[in-house]
Specification:
The protein is an alpha/beta fold and 209 residues long. Strand 3, helix 2 and strand 4 form a beta-alpha-beta unit. Helix 3 crosses helix 4. The radius of gyration is 16 Å and the shape is globular. The N and C termini lie close together (11 Å). Keywords: Hydrolase.
């Protein structure tokens, strides 16, 4: 089973580097193209264990069905992000609208503020490749408008943090049946960076089931 990793908004495939170092399996990290050219082709010739972090999970749910025998995992993920009448745990759409407007004025400021909210020190540099305002905007639009709840049956398991400031425990609980959620008491929104060993164990266990 091929392991495919998909990063979240405002990040790049590099966020998986420490997790990949811990995994004894071959992995492929897709690139949603927020910094440099995208690389988003999913293999079609073998079963996949597709792992999405944050927006990466919603992106996976929006793709066509994966090869027979595939599984999807979420880390700090969700099946819907924006608030709706039947999804009160989501983020107010106006927050995403403000971020979209801010991208046009100063994309780097929006990115740094979001990454700081995720727990990245403000002084940490952004990825060195050229950022794409267009693809960043498409990502925010998916966060605002995307709804993968009808696809949640495709998700094998979730790994979530109780101290996640972006995807709250309420949002996690509203996204998935409790029996499929594994909780970490700490780690914030960036478990692949804050606890790569935990993420690798979670992925490995699911790959071996």
């Amino acid at each position: 089973m091929r392991i495919v990793l998909v990063h979240g908004w405002a990040f790049s495939p590099a966020m998986w580097d420490a997790v990949r170092d811990e995994l004894p399996h071959e992995t492929l990290a897709l690139d949603l193209g927020f910094f440099g050219p995208p690389a988003i082709t999913l293999p079609e010739d073998e079963p996949l264990l597709a792992v999405g972090h944050s927006l990466g999970l919603l992106w996976l749910l929006m793709q066509k069905p994966l090869p027979m025998g595939s599984r999807i995992l979420g880390i700090n993920g969700f099946t819907r992000f924006s608030r709706a009448t039947d999804f009160p745990a989501g983020v107010a759409p106006r927050v995403l609208d403000r971020m979209l407007a801010g991208l046009e004025r100063n994309a780097e400021d929006v990115l740094r503020q979001f990454r700081a909210n995720c727990g990245v020190p403000v002084e940490d540099p952004l990825p060195e490749d050229d950022l794409s305002v267009e693809r960043l905007a498409q990502g925010l639009q998916l966060l605002r408008d995307g709804d993968g709840r009808v696809e949640k049956g495709r998700i094998h398991a979730f790994l979530a943090s109780r101290d996640d400031a972006i995807v709250t425990p309420d949002m996690t609980a509203a996204s998935m049946p409790s029996g499929r959620i594994r909780w970490s008491e700490k780690g914030g929104h960036l478990l692949p960076l804050s606890n790569p060993a935990l993420c690798a164990r979670f992925i490995s266990e699911m790959a071996d089931v």
